[in-house]
Write a structure and sequence with these properties.
Order of helices and strands: HHHEEEEEEEEHEEEEHH
Radius of gyration: 22 Å
Shape: flat
Largest sheet: 5 strands, mixed, barrel
Structural class: alpha+beta
Length: about 240
């Protein structure tokens, strides 16, 4: 019986790991957002010039001197617009256009620049989506798909009037000033959402997988603990 319980416990933990990996980069981003230690901007700036690199989390207000407006005249510092279509079971990216200006995170008199060029899967914002067909695409993209093919447009953007949480490694940039970017094998993360809301966005469409993995993470240690108890009683 102890052996059976132990096997069930290990199998549950292995199953949880496999399920979480199936979520893709979103799981890793969520885990880093939740587990990365938070420091003040002053501490992060000091780390940039220090001998040891650390992956840390900071919060503050988005700030830039070079904002650009969106269609509603909101000041943006970053925008990514992707056009996708389905190709069998996979999505095919037809266009991926980024617009960005130098920006950082500010709090009172402290400012830490963010490496916007490094933003990828670590950008966690509310994605604006639009759906249509290949016939509705601009001329330069229309020839890439059939007129009846379903297409989706996704827009991710960061405004200069928002508060943000970022995680990364503070270093000295090419200009000698502190810069937050990826490092130590971890991505640069930036979200303009509160952490609970960011977690919901990251789990969107895969909530059942996350719930199942969480259940297995609870069952695994329980089975292992039961195996130990049964073994002690049997002895």
């Amino acid at each position: 019986m102890p052996l059976v319980l132990a096997v069930l416990g290990l199998a549950s933990l292995a199953g949880a790991v496999l399920l979480l990996r199936s979520v893709g980069p979103a799981y890793r981003v969520a885990r880093l957002l939740a587990a990365t230690p938070e420091v003040t901007l002053t501490e992060a700036i000091a780390l940039a010039g220090g001998p040891a690199r650390r992956y840390v989390r900071i919060t503050g207000r988005i700030s830039s001197d070079e904002e650009f407006p969106d269609e509603h005249d909101r000041p943006l510092v970053f925008r990514r617009r992707r056009v996708e279509t389905e190709a069998g079971a996979r999505r095919r990216i037809l266009s991926d256009v980024r617009e960005a200006v130098p920006f950082g995170i500010e709090l009172r008199s402290e400012y830490l620049a963010v490496d916007g060029e490094a933003l990828g899967d670590g950008l966690v914002v509310i994605v604006r989506e639009a759906f249509g067909t290949g016939a509705e695409l601009p001329p330069e993209l229309r020839s890439m798909v059939a007129p009846e093919a379903p297409v989706r447009v996704l827009v991710e953007q960061v405004s200069a009037v928002e508060h943000a949480t970022a995680a990364g490694v503070p270093v000295l940039g090419p200009d000698g000033l502190p810069l937050l970017g990826p490092g130590l094998g971890r991505p640069l993360i930036l979200t303009t959402l509160e952490l609970p809301a960011a977690m919901r966005v990251l789990a969107r469409g895969k909530r059942r997988v996350v719930v199942a993995a969480a259940a297995l993470l609870v069952c695994g240690p329980a089975f292992l603990a039961a195996a130990v108890v049964v073994a002690i009683v049997a002895a």
